[in-house]
Amino acid sequence: MAYELAMFPLGTVLFPHAQLPLHVFEPRYQAMVEACLASESEPEFGVVLIERGSEVGGGDTRFDVATVARILQVGRADDGRYVLGTVGTRRLHVVRWLDDAPYPRAEVETFPDPAGRPLEPGLRADVGGLLTHVLALRAELGDAVDVVAELDDDPVRASYEAAARAGVGPLDAQALLAVDGATERFEMLRVMLEDQRLVLDAHLRGPDPSE
Question: Residue ranges of the domains in the chain?
């Protein structure tokens, strides 16, 4: 069943179960936060990736698969900016966009992952191993990352946890969010992480002196 929800278009993808800190400085999104906090229900809004355009000023084009962000922590600066701690809770499908005044809103439906195909033996372990390897390579190259890649026992949640830590670009992250089923998401991640491993390995080895 469709319902109305405030939406926050961003240049990043939020996955279910992932943390997302936000600095809210634009007046219309400050108004959105205030409306969420005043609601009698859980303070939530949708986070959706911008397909074309900018985070500031509107006029952007957005994807139609998004994630609900629940506000867990709130701080407010003297100049009116909000500092939020949020967590992704569930996927959404945007049925239709509503008027952006006073802030972006949409009619949305909850978009749960279907059961999908059973995980092939070793698939989650392969992705977990690749993720640990990639995180270790990124740390060696100077990125501040936690190299421990523990994944939940639930395969759907584990697939989102791996996706959130994979360090892929926004369009690849959107593809991971939109795909149906843990098996399909793990299969995409295995390819993306293997490609990333090869690139990082090449960076660490440096140029071939024989070339």
Answer: 3-110, 123-205
Cβ neighbours around 122 below 10 Å, total: 9
What one-letter code names the amino acid at 144?
A
Q: Find, among 173, 145, 14, 168, the residue nearest to 84 by Cα.
A: 14
Averaged confidence pLDDT in the chain:
91
pLDDT digits (tens, 9 = 90+) for 72-112: 999 998 888 999 999 999 999 999 999 889 999 999 999 99
The model carries a pTM of: 0.90
Cβ proximity of 3 and 105 under 8 Å: no
Contacts of 70-73 with C-beta under 8 Å, sequence gap 24+, read 70/42, 70/43, 70/44, 71/33, 71/36, 71/37, 71/43, 71/44, 71/45
Top-level class of domain 123-205: mainly alpha
User: Percentage of the chain surpassing pLDDT 70?
Assistant: 94
Measured CA to CA, the distance from residue 99 to residue 7 in angstroms comes to: 11
| pLDDT tens-digit series, residues 110-167 | 999 987 788 888 999 999 999 999 999 999 988 878 877 788 999 999 999 999 999 9
Domain 3-110 in CATH 2.30.130.40: yes
